[in-house]
Amino acid sequence: MVVCGLACWRCRWLLPLLLGLAIIMGIIALAGRGWLESESEPYVQQASLWESCTRGEEDLNWNCESLMDYGWGRAAAATYLVGFVILVICFALAVIAFSIEILRFNFVRGIGGLLFVVAAFQIIGLVIYPVKFTEEIPLMGDNMFSWAYGFGWASTVVVIGCAFFFCCLPNWEDEVLGNIKPTYYYSSPERAPYLN
């Protein structure tokens, strides 16, 4: 019987792998220009976390304005960026925690607590941005919050899921370390006459 539960060494790397995926999605959100885009043609507006760009219907060049000139723009960028930096630190700590032979489960629970802090910072940045953007930046045409903004939320959702798993993992310390013997269930001879 082959069973790969949490006691399997390679299965321990799933949580750091998910944190790495959240980092990749965070990089896409930080670098992407698709936080806000025109919904249909003519494409006259696009924005990132850092700047807002507009152009005329016949114009090919974008006229960009930095969002760092606004207090809310600096706040949204700073909170999301601080959350991202803490996420990278948590990833490094998770790799260290899962690399040692005997896991330090209180250390793992601390990583889970830091991940909740990451989620709080990212959510604050992701909420400040659309609320203040739509209030203070004149929108042209029909617009939508687009793919890069979605990657920011996807990163946050993965971080929240990993935070719960990191916090709950010490409750199954024996299963993860393989200290519990498997339970085998056998049927009695009366119930299985073909065993005689």
TrEMBL record:
It holds the Pfam family PMP22_Claudin. Coiled coil: none annotated. Gene3D superfamilies: 1.20.140.150. It is found in: Cell junction, Desmosome; Cell membrane; Cytoplasm. GO terms for cellular component: cytoplasm; desmosome; plasma membrane. Its main location: other. One of its GO terms (biological process) is cell-cell adhesion. It comes from the Eukaryota. Keywords: Apoptosis, Cell adhesion, Cell junction, Cell membrane, Cytoplasm, Membrane, Transmembrane, Transmembrane helix. It is a multi-pass membrane protein. The chain crosses the membrane at residues 12-32, 77-98, 110-131, 151-172. Belongs to the TMEM47 family. This is p53 apoptosis effector related to PMP-22. The gene is PERP.
